User: What shape does this take?
Amino acid sequence: MNKKDFDAIVVGSGPNGLSAAITLQREGLSVLLLEAKDTIGGGMRTEELTLPGFKHDVCSAIHPMAADSGFFQSLPLHDFGLEYITPPVAFAHPLEDGTAGAAYNSLEETAQSLGEDGKAYKSLLEPVIQHWRYLEPDLLAPLHFPKHFFTLARFGSNAIKSANTIAKRFHTQKAKALWTGVAAHSALPLNYAGTAAVGLVLGSAAHRGGWPLAKGGSQSIARALAGYFVSLGGKIETGVYVKSLQQLPSCHAVLFDVSPRQLLHISGNYFSESYKRKITRYKYGVGVFKIDWALDAPIPFTAKECSLAGTVHIGNSLKEISLSEKTTWEGSEATAPFVLLAQQSLFDDSRAPQGKHTAWAYCHVPNGSNKDMTAVIEKQVERFAPGFRERIIGRHTMNTQQMEEYNPNYIGGDIVGGANTIGQLFARPVLKYSPYRTSAKGIYICSASTPPGGGVHGFCGYHAARRVLSDIFSKRELPA
Assistant: This one.
């Protein structure tokens, strides 16, 4: 093999770019990680967006998949300053009658709180919790023959269903709403097949280890990953916006933590016409409109369970949330949108000045929407927390275009790297034996637009790097 400046170059320092770089560097390769911005992190960044002293997570905020990631757990990230804080309630769901459903970290406690629906809730999630160590290697990986076929098949019998179908197992509005809120993270209409899978994975995570946040902000995860990578001998350069392959030093392989659309702009001349056609057809999902607030006091939710939760799902009933997600998918902004809200400062006092607080929220909007959703989002919060508006002392908003300008991976404000439809569950970004390979030798994609998809878990980068190690460096006996 001819001598190169580096064995491999990774473009983009999101969770998957960092994970790919670490995986390669741990195998003794020389790896260069390039980042367009002045700081590393991708979706894991924390900034003072509103007022001095108020630290806001720019994109990802709550990290059940990061804390539970088998790959991240294999790394000594605590040694590099990463600490998780786990609220007693993973997610809460307020209702208009003043009550709320709550997913406590304990499955038993949650089931008891749901009364007559407790048994159905427990029977739905308990098998996923008990068998997660067998499910994770098959679910959070590219398409392959499963190692635990029957366990995966049992999971799939529910996961393939729509969230609305699963909701029929419950009788009370509280249980239906609690389930619907977590399933709505799929960012798809809730009558679509496969939307139950997201609810099962994230719902079970609540009772496997909770839904934690990173102390000091999501940037702490990026710093820990980068610190470990550098300790292995890896090199990072920031402020390098890669627009063509000609910019790069010589290497044996390049891995791109970018969207398929960006990849086409950067490397398109190297791809076959067939691959270019397929990657052009890749479908992006709905966008988001995001708000960060500086507050002079905590959000005054009527339901006490919401003040114990790091995440609050605001949308009232199954019917309302289903309508909101369907309306958005069909190209219109919802008048009463489903809102995903995080209140990190309740549990991490480093996020705001003493006695003050932060809050983080977004709703789904059509891809590329320019509509200002500030008023409707704040109306939704006020609906379940009267007096909320009076506590706002600072505000920062981002529409879909601003999200994409901030991070070009977020095409049209799509923060999960592409629609989570059944067709794109494994065919991300194209249907191939190895979706990380492109049609050009030595060029790979490792972003959330590859399996297993969005979420701060690092598996897209990890699996892409394993493919590179096998294809280019003949390292075929890597442990899974």
Notes: The mean pLDDT is 96. The longest strand covers residues 287-295.
